[in-house]
Each structure stands twice: as C-alpha cells, then as structure tokens.
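Below is a filled-in request sheet from our internal design queue. Each sheet records the structural input a requester submitted and the sequence that came back. We keep these sheets so that new team members can see what a complete request looks like end to end.

REQUESTER: design group, bay 2
PRIORITY: normal
MODE: inverse folding
CHAIN LENGTH: 358
BACKBONE (tokenized):
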C-alpha cells in the first residue's frame, strides 16, 4: 500500500474576506462544526504514527482562530514540515516574531491578486491590498521561507510581470501562479467573469513566465499547469499526489481527496469523528477506487497523453466537478487546450487520434 505523506487540513472555514473566486460555497463568516484544537492535535499525532511528513494548514483564514500558533508549535515540535496559507490581512508583528522561531521546517503562503490596490481589492475586498503588502514586506524583512500565490484573472493578467518583479526580485519571496480558477464553490460562476482563456494563458507563459522559470535556480517559482502542457526543457512540474500520498481534512473532520473537496460527497471517504485516519486510508472503498484508477481508461485527451501514468488525469476534483458522470473524465485544463488546438503534439501518444470529449 502507498504511504500517506501529506495531509492538508482546514483549521477553520471562517474567513474575514469574501473573495469572488473562493472554492467555498458558504459565506466566509459562517462557523459550521469547527473542531477544537485538541481534535487536530490528535489527528496530527495519528498522522505522525502513520509516517506523514508534511502538514499543510489552510482555511478559511487560519488567523481568525486564536489557537493557530498552538497548532503550529505542536507540529514543529513533532518534526513535521509545516506550510500555512493565509490572505495576510490578519497577521501582526507578533505573529512574524513567532514565525521566526519555527525554524527551517516552517513556510507560509500568502495570496496576492494584483499589483495595485484597485486590482487586488476587486477580487478580495476594499482595503486589503495595503494589509497584504505590509505583511509581505514584514515577511521579507524577517527572511522567512515564504511564497506568494496569485490566481490569474482577466483583471490581473497584464500585471503578472509587475507582481513577479515585486515578489521575486524586490521582496525575494517565492511565487506560485494559478492560471485557472477551479470551477468549484463560487469559482463556478467566477470562471466566466474572471477566468482567462487558455490561449492567453499560454501567451503569457511563453512570452514572460517560462523565462523566469528557466533562470530560477532556487526553485522558488512555479506554475500550476499540468505536466503535458509544460515545455520539455522545464522540469519544475506540479503533480498533485491525490489518493496516492495525500488526503484533505475538512474543518468538520471530513476526510477527502484534497482539502478543496472536503464538503463534496463525491470525494469524501469518511469522518475522523467516527473513523480513524489509518482505517480510512487503508480500508475505504471510494479512496481505493481513486487510488487504483486505471490511467489507460482515461477519456478525452488524457487517454492519449504520454504523461498519464505520472499525471493520472490531472485534477480529479476539477474533472469530476465539470464532467459529473464520468469517473475517467479528462482534466478540463488539458481538454480545453486540446480542443483549441493548443495541446502539444510531443505529449500525445497518437497525434492523429480524435480526442474530442462530450
């Protein structure tokens, strides 16, 4: 059996913002079955016994909870590699000082969706750009292991070079570009209004971002693009370990394919209030179905892709949300690229095969 290596837990579903493309469906101020610190400490203890090495802590906005540092301290003490995600607006100077004490196994990711106040705040709410930039400046001054995450939208498309320059060159932080809004939660409606078509994504990457990736010896830059769509000479691939080495845990204890899908029955394997993490990992039928998925049965372009044994059909949450009734549906990112004539021929098993879908 594959070894569980990463858990991504939603420490809270509450949030002080109400972002237009949020993967959550409910209002950010909701408090639904939020679990106490003791629950999470027990979960992480069980994970440690199973050999888990990395814990990603996300939300919601995790700094809404006053006990966030107690969780982080416990994880660091137990030698986990810890990454936290935040919108950066609630982080204070005293939080930065605590971050310094967590050492080399701690890192933080902060969301930034514009190079200026107007653009960023159009997605995340008025007054938040200045708060986020202040936090990023403080993080940079503290020389913390950190990166910025930017969701590509029609509003910030032309600003990506400015954002990368500010983050990577001026602040010396890492940068991760998310070129697609996942059609999940509020993202379903946001895709049409804010999403960028793949042709423009490819243009941005080819004319600007790939050159940064080629020169990046520090491995601080990345783009959330499926392996087959990346140029052959760039080996910095982002491959999600869903089902094989990773699980998500929702704020209510649901265990799922990833944290994004923790409230969707299609991806939920059980709940830690009634089943142990080990029991779910080793015995759940739905999880085993995902884990043992036959990549050779993938439909659309994914079934004709030379990277399918590694990529495994890309994001299953994205695929099964967009194409609801097909377990072997293609990843929408790659299928869209193929149907627009932009899927690279070098990644195809048979260049002449018709891979249209639906």
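RETURNED SEQUENCE:
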């Amino acid at each position: 059996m594959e070894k569980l290596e990463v858990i991504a837990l939603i420490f809270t579903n509450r949030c002080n913002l109400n972002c237009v493309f949020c993967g959550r469906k409910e209002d950010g101020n909701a408090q639904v079955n939020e679990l106490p610190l003791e629950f999470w400490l027990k979960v992480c203890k069980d994970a440690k016994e199973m050999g888990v090495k990395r814990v990603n802590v996300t939300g919601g906005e995790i700094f809404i909870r006053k006990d966030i540092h107690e969780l982080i301290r416990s994880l660091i003490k137990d030698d986990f590699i810890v990454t936290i995600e935040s919108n950066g607006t609630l982080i204070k100077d005293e939080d930065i000082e605590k971050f310094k004490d967590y050492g080399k196994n701690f890192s933080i990711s902060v969301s930034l969706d514009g190079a200026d106040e107007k653009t960023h705040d159009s997605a995340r709410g008025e007054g938040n750009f200045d708060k986020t930039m202040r936090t990023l400046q403080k993080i940079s001054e503290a020389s913390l292991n950190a990166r910025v995450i930017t969701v590509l939208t029609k509003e910030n498309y032309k600003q990506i070079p400015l954002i990368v320059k500010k983050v990577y060159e001026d602040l010396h932080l890492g940068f991760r570009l998310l070129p697609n809004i996942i059609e999940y939660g509020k993202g379903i409606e946001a895709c049409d209004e804010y999403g960028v078509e793949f042709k423009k994504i490819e243009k941005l990457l080819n004319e600007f971002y790939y050159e940064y990736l080629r020169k990046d010896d520090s491995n601080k830059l990345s783009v959330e693009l499926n392996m087959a769509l990346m140029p052959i000479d760039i080996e910095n691939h982002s491959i999600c370990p869903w089902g094989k080495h990773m699980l998500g845990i929702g704020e209510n204890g649901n265990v799922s394919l990833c944290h994004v899908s923790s409230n969707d029955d299609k991806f939920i394997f059980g709940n830690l209030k009634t089943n142990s993490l080990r029991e779910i990992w080793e015995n759940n039928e739905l999880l085993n179905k995902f884990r043992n998925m036959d990549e050779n049965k993938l439909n659309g372009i994914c079934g004709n892709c030379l990277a399918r044994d590694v990529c495994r059909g890309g994001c299953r949450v994205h695929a099964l949300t967009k194409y609801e009734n097909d377990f072997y549906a293609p990843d929408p990112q790659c299928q869209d690229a193929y149907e627009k004539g932009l899927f690279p021929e070098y990644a195809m098993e048979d260049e002449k095969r018709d891979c249209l879908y639906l």
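SHEET NOTES:
- Residues 295-347 form one domain.
- The chain has two domains: 6-229, 295-347.
FILED BY: M.R.
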